[in-house]
Amino acid sequence: FSGPFTDVVTTNLKLRNPSDRKVCFKVKTTAPRRYCVRPNSGIIDPGSSVIVSVMLQPFDYDPNEKSKHKFMVQTTYAPPNISDMEAVWKEAKPDELMDSKLRCVFEMPSENDKLNDIDASKPAPVLNTAKQDGPMPKPHSVSLNDTETRKLVEECKRLQAEVMKLTDENRHLRDEGLRLRKVAHSDKSGSPTALALRDNGSNSLPSLLVVIAAIFIGFFLGKFIL
Fold first, then answer.
1. Which residues fall within 8 angstroms of residue 16, CB to CB, at 6 or more apart?
2. Distance (Å, whole) CA 14 – CA 177
């Protein structure tokens, strides 16, 4: 019997009748509570054979304990018109009985056999699968989500539009200032109207600086975001 012995271990015993008469057989054991034998008795036709299954029940195996379990296969020629198997064995004479004794041997599998069994039970690895099981890994999160990005882009576009508008106003004011300077130079009388036009031209300079600052702010903001 080959272990491990944590479950039922079955060994088959083949009995063959080489004679030209029917033979009755019976299987006996010294430990009937430890074994289940099917069939434990029967008749074998001439030249035929029968398989007897011997099932060892689970137990705690001790490698230092020597097995003393034995089996005996007892046989006798079957009488004609047999009807009661128990009566055959009771009425059989000792010189009509034949027996074969078998000793039980318990063996545990070696470490190499265990490793081979484990390797054989492992499924083969699957490489380069076309489809990956489970959810796909999520991409790394960014600092800004799509909604905030759209808002910043829209704000940048709005600032650029305002910068363009201020640029046009600045160009218009610059042209107006040049025109006023020409008028001021042509007006040599120093009239109040000429002085007022000079004041308007000088007042346009701060607006020009504001426009230039807005242009630089919009340029760097757009370049940083986009």
1. 44, 48, 49
2. 124
- Token pair of 103 as six digits: 């000793």
Q: Who contacts 52 (Cβ-Cβ below 8 Å, separation ≥6)?
A: 12, 13, 14, 15, 27, 37, 38, 39, 40
Element (H, E) at 131: none
Q: Give pLDDT tens digits for 31-64.
A: 999 999 999 999 999 999 999 999 999 988 888 8
Q: Which of 111, 105, 109 is nearest to 3 (CA)?
A: 109
Nearest-10 Cα torsion for 159, 162, 164, 168: -160
Residue type, 72: M
Confirm whether pTM is higher than 0.70.
no
Contact 47, 69 (CB under 8 A): no
